[in-house]
Amino acid sequence: MATKTTIRRAWELMGMRIHQQMSTDMVAIVAGHTDFQTKLRELAASGKKPREVTKEEK
What we know:
- By secondary structure, this protein is mostly helical.
- It has one domain (about 1-55).
- The protein has four helices and no strands.
- The longest helix has 16 residues, at about 15-30.
């Protein structure tokens, strides 16, 4: 129990909790944007995986 508590405190001191909360907020904002939804539909229609499209764009 002491080890678990120490790890949790170190994790919180590194700012991981805030980072996770902010990341979740940003994903929610981006996922609701029409540009993202359009691109997601295009990706689904193409039958490609996101990593395949990313390689093409480089």
